[in-house]
Specification:
Strand order of the largest sheet: 19-18-21-22-23-15-14-12-13-24
Number of helices: 19
Number of strands: 24
Helix content: 25-40%
Bound molecules: glutamine
Distance between the termini: 37 Å
């Protein structure tokens, strides 16, 4: 029978429930178990696809085209759990489904209520993942215990253990144990209150994972154990990891979290094999090279807006035993201050995806700078579209070339809307979304990196390269090295005379893992190392110091 692990969070938001859940998932998989990961988000939006990156961070896209919470990115990077639209539900979807059933008359005249109709719907989406082949479903409940929106979810997971039997369910609660400088003490009261709130609802957590800046003493753990009614060994410290998020699973392993989960769920397993993860961290700790990469985007001041890009750069760094010094630069600043002031000295420049006009000219100026100065350049989605606009304007001499997303009246719409998009008015879930195949040109940088000419990558866009301009762009030296299998959509462009200038219409960052860096990110970082060495001679130790190492 499939076992269920529910992960809730208390005291404050942004505690890293996603990372903790993903880490537990990884440890259980390394113990030989088959795991499925799921996130239930209490907000009312149907999905995060229409939410601002400032509000919600990155929208993470799955193979099946669902636009999901960024925690699913952690799940994919840490585990092998296949993710589909069943892996992320929101209150909007739960209600939509219940209301549709009501309209179809499925409730036979009954009054439709939060309990049992909404809670039953929540339980049914959890059950969906529990087929015979699955040992453990890990379901993370978004938000913080005490939020009004969370209540139906907590009620549903409370009922769940009665439905499937207490021994088949486990509740893991993540809390904060803050350090008060003035008192020089860790404070356990917020944790006690948060567990108190859970118990009011009828959930006694089985395991408490405590986020803390400082090590917790035995006394503090004993106090929490006593007041929160848990065994001492079930109070687990999760200290902040400044160095890398990939330390989290190893640290939870050292605190025996995975062993405890298995013991409490009655799962007989082997010790996890963590050699590969230890090796990754080893490489991260002992880099042989150092390169500086500028990510120039609209939301560069928001840490989560390009989450998967930063992670993918990190993976490429690990694969190349290279420390990535990352600078997040706002494209608006490039617009106002000029590229020379902000971008000189970088070993690589990446322009990520995005929507909306703000900062667009800064992105175009960034591409021009990278192209003219021979700095390795990687454009992703909107970054690729900006590269085409820049090339059209400054190489093909089409001075007013633009994307119709930003200038509907341009005489040279080198980027225009996909045909299938023309008549769509709804914003949610209506872009070209999800995994699609592409074929690559033999001998291109892209084909070299992938070591194949057939790939599948995830998309999330409405606009594309206008085929009317393809010949003109190519005649001036831009190479189209990847297209959709029928050749009708441009997927990759390259500049052959440049050290590494590759831009893609899709989002490769969603498929990068710490254990297998994405080939294009790896190739980009390789090129940045080469550029760095060419600039500085053989020694790579003196990279630009104006930017900081990646931290998440
Ligand atoms: N705004 C562009 C489009 O819709 C690019 C999207 C993106 O970068 N994800 O085509």
């Amino acid at each position: 029978m499939t076992k269920h692990l529910f992960v809730t969070g208390g005291v404050v938001s942004s505690l890293g429930k996603g990372l903790t859940s993903a880490s537990v998932g990884m440890l259980l998989e390394q113990r030989g178990l088959t795991v499925r990961m799921q996130k239930l988000d209490p907000y009312i939006n149907v999905d995060p696809g229409t939410m601002s990156p400032y509000q919600h961070g990155e929208v993470y896209v799955l193979d099946d085209g669902s636009e999901t919470d960024l925690d699913l990115g952690h799940y994919e990077r840490f585990t092998n759990s296949p993710l589909t639209r069943d892996s992320n539900y929101t209150t909007g979807q739960i209600y939509q489904s219940v209301i549709n059933k009501e309209r179809r008359g499925e409730f036979l005249g009954k009054t439709v209520q939060v309990i049992p109709h909404i809670t039953n719907e929540i339980k049914s989406v959890i059950h969906k993942l529990a087929d015979e082949s699955v040992d453990v479903v890990i379901t993370e409940i978004g938000g913080t215990v005490g939020d009004i929106e969370s209540l139906p979810y907590l009620e549903a997971i409370r009922q769940f253990s009665n439905d499937v039997g207490k021994g088949n369910c486990l509740y893991l609660h993540l809390t904060l144990v803050p350090y008060l400088k003035a008192a020089r003490e860790l404070k356990t009261k917020p944790t006690q209150h948060s567990v108190g709130q859970l118990r009011e609802i009828g959930i006694q957590p089985d395991i408490l994972v405590c986020r803390t800046e400082q090590p917790m003493s035995r006394e503090e753990c004993e106090k929490i154990s006593l007041f929160c009614n848990l065994e001492l060994e079930a109070v687990i410290e999760e200290r902040d990891k400044d160095f890398s998020i990939y330390e989290v699973p190893l640290s939870l392993y050292e605190h025996r979290l995975d062993a405890l989960v298995c013991q409490k769920l009655g799962l007989q397993t082997q010790e996890p094999d963590l050699d590969m993860w230890r090796d990754l961290l080893q490489r991260l700790r002992n880099p042989k090279h150092e390169v500086s990469i500028a990510v120039v985007g609209k939301y560069a001041d928001h840490r989560d807006a390009y989450k998967s890009i930063y992670e993918a750069l990190d993976h490429a760094g690990m694969a190349n035993t290279t420390q990535i010094r990352l600078a997040r630069i706002r494209s608006e600043d490039v617009e106002s201050k000029g590229p020379e002031r902000l971008l000189a000295g970088f070993d690589g420049i990446l322009v990520p995806g995005g929507f909306g006009e703000r900062g667009i000219e800064g992105k175009v100026a960034t591409v021009r700078y990278a192209r003219e100065k021979g700095i390795p350049f990687f454009g992703i989605c909107l970054g690729m579209q900006c590269a085409v606009v820049e090339f059209a304007r400054n190489v093909c001499d089409l001075k007013d070339a633009h994307s119709t997303e930003f200038d509907k009246e341009t005489n040279n719409p080198v980027i225009c809307m996909l045909d299938e998009q023309q008549s769509i008015t709804d914003k949610g879930g209506t872009m070209r979304l999800g995994a699609q195949p592409a074929k690559l040109a033999e001998g291109s940088h892209a084909a070299e990196c992938y070591a194949t000419t057939e790939v599948s990558e995830r998309h999330r866009h409405r606009f594309e390269v206008n085929n009317v301009y393809r010949q003109q762009l190519e005649a001036h030296g831009l190479q189209i090295t990847g297209t959709s299998p029928d050749g009708s959509l441009v997927e990759i462009i390259e500049l052959p005379d440049h050290r590494w200038f590759v831009a893609v219409q899709y989002h490769p960052e969603f498929k990068s893992k710490p254990t297998s860096a994405h080939p294009l990110f790896k190739g980009f970082v390789d090129a940045a190392i080469g550029h760095h060495k060419a600039k500085h001679g053989k020694s790579a130790a003196d990279a630009d110091s104006s930017c900081s190492p990646i931290t998440h």
